[in-house]
Description:
By secondary structure, this protein is mostly helical.
Amino acid sequence: MRLLTRVAVAVALLALGAGTAVASVAVHELGWALPLAVAATLLTLVALPAGWWTRLPFALGWTCLVAWVVGPRPEGDYVISSDVQGYVVVGLALLVLVLGIATLPRPGGRAREPDATGTAGERESAGIRS
Length: 130
């Protein structure tokens, strides 16, 4: 049941990331809306806890949607313009992806527990072994 909940949360956050990217791309040409879109994206990314099932799906949804719309359309024009606003959106997509990956928890389990005589790090730096 726990895995099913994680998958459901990840799918919802993937959709939320894609939806936020759609809104950001839709308003990126408006002068007042681009800073709002950047702030909404980054604040959502920071508010989500780091992890494979939380922050990373949001970042992947956001980045994948921007990567999908950055190419030319069949008519020959582009959804994201090649001006400052367009480059901000593409740069933000790269930043979102980097933050989503760079803040993943380190593999190998949790840090060692401190004991009554001091923390494990203090004991090792003092040359004391258990």
